[in-house]
Amino acid sequence: MNFLKPIALFLCLIITTLLMAQGFEGTIEFTRKNHFDETNYTYYVTSSKVRIDELNKDGEISGTMLVDLRTKKVIAVNHDRKLHMEIKSKASVKDLSKSEIFKTTEKKVILGHNCTKWTVSNSDFKSKAEYWVIDKGDYFFFKELLTALNRKDKIGLYFMQIPENIGFFPIVGEEKGFDGKLKAKMETNKMTKKKIDANKFKIPDGYAEFKN
After folding, report:
1. Does residue 146 form part of some domain?
2. Which of 43, 101, 148, 167 is geometrically suited to a Cys-Cys bond with 28, CB 3.0 to 4.6 A?
3. Residues 111 and 40 in one domain
4. Which residues make beta-bridge pairs with 122?
């Protein structure tokens, strides 16, 4: 019996936990755009949990997702109907094995952060993603968040193809066709380091569980 494999896995989990504990805590406000829509969101980030608020045009919360980064449990909260339910989504089955990854030497300062341009392209889907990634890699929540949400958009899927993405956060991400036309964009508007109240990750009192 191979006793080294479970020991190595245990050590890996300990290291990951320690890294996440040292990572970014605070809020990230960003906008997601495509040809049809533009939506604003706010992340509330701690070492083990993320709250995602979707905002309407008046800046009010229209929906919330509560994500446990360790268990990968995702709960959607509907504030209008005062309901909550667990969301279970499957990982994408798209074959992205032909993705080509480049970490360029292009630099830019965005929101006071030194950033480097990374690109991922895929000939099968005739599209590419361009990211401006913060050089300081203490954003350990982001990869775990993408894994928990199983996002299907190209900006998320392409970023997950980068082997060395642990701890890095794309402050701007764009999906473009091979013709150069913009298809979708995720752009950070504000980042604030601060302690997040644990109550942010609780389902409000009086909300019922919705069951299919």
Report:
1. yes
2. 43
3. no
4. 127
Q: Report the C-alpha gap between 65 and 89 in whole angstroms.
A: 13
Is the domain of 124 the same as that of 45? no
Encoding tokens for residue 69?
């980064």
pLDDT tens-digit series, residues 143-172: 999 999 999 999 999 999 999 999 999 999
Supply 78's token pair: 């509907």
* Side chain identity at residue 48, one-letter code: S
Q: For 46, phi and psi rounded to 5 degrees?
A: -125, -175
Is 66 a member of any domain?
yes
Neighbours of 82 (CB within 10 A): 14
Residues 109 and 83 in one domain: no
Q: Are residues 184 and 199 in the same domain?
A: no
In terms of domains, do 125 and 83 share one? no
Residues 122 and 184 in one domain: yes
Nearest to 112 by CA among 26, 190, 46: 190
Rounded distance, CA 196 to CA 101, Å?
Answer: 35
How many CB atoms within 10 Å of residue 130? 22
**pTM passes above 0.85:** yes
Digit-coded pLDDT (tens) for 52-109: 999 998 999 999 999 999 999 999 999 999 999 999 888 888 999 899 999 999 999 9
Give the residue, 120 or 89, on which the prediction is more confident: 120
